[in-house]
Please model this.
Amino acid sequence: MSAFCKQDGAMKILLDPRADFIKVFNTSIHLLLWLSMLAR
Model:
């Protein structure tokens, strides 16, 4: 469930044109790590 919430947060950040780069970058890294853990 928490993974879903993080994904939702990522979408909100990516859709917000004022979001700063560091937030987007950190969220992307978290999503990539989460997906790589699922792929194992």
Observations:
- The CA atoms of residues 10 and 28 lie 8 Å apart.
- The first helix runs from residue 2 to 15.
